[in-house]
Amino acid sequence: MSNLNGAYYGPSIPPPDKKTRSYHRHSGSSCNPLSCLCSCICNLVCQILITIIVLIGIAVLVFWLIYRPSTPKFHVNEATLTQFTLSPDNNTLYYNLAVNMTFRNPNKRIGIYLDRIEAVGEYHGERFDSKYLETFYLGHKDEKDLSTEFRGERMVVLGNGDRSKYTRESSDRVYEIDLKLKLKMRLKVGWAKPKFKPKFECDLKVPLTTGGRVSTTGFQRTKCDFDW
């Protein structure tokens, strides 16, 4: 063994595999340039969206702190019903209903334009009449009284349950009538005038006052529900 000079006389060592060399050559790169670019763009878009959402939230908070907006108020002050007769033969409703109402703007810094007001009379979900009221502007802490009258006849189709309710209400001489107001409205907030289409819903209990007989229950002033 001491005569050997350190040379290796075994079989030749095979060259490294091409796939192995390729792996070592590219193992330092985690993604290609296109993937990196897409990732950067996504991160940038997310940051921009988050910034916009935060700015909008701050703007809404500042607006609320400055203006403290409140929804408009609407009351039915008086309702006079002198006819409300449902024909048993052809489902025709004969009616005469006069209504006095008040719109109120409770805001100190916001004006309200009422560009369209449609008043709709309904009985147990069946419309029997509608009227368009005068339009107007409500200034800060201002209010406006309006009156309208529903008079005429209209066919209404009631189910057996609603007909039974009509019979009971006729006996008590107090009718449950729904008044709905559909609005086109603009708010005056500085230079801006955003538009909305809200509505009021009023559940009225109206006594019949005709034929010398008056219900023992008078009409109670009713606050209506506001819905954006």
From TrEMBL:
It is found in: Membrane. InterPro entries: LEA_2, NDR1-like. It holds the Pfam family LEA_2. Keywords: Membrane, Transmembrane, Transmembrane helix. GO terms for biological process: defense response to other organism. Residues 102-192 form the Late embryogenesis abundant protein LEA-2 subgroup domain. GO terms for cellular component: plasma membrane; plasmodesma. Residues 1-21 are annotated as: Disordered. It is a single-pass membrane protein. The chain crosses the membrane at residues 48-67. Signal peptide: none annotated. PANTHER family: NDR1_HIN1-LIKE PROTEIN 3, OS05G0367900 PROTEIN. This is NDR1/HIN1-like 3. It comes from Artemisia annua.
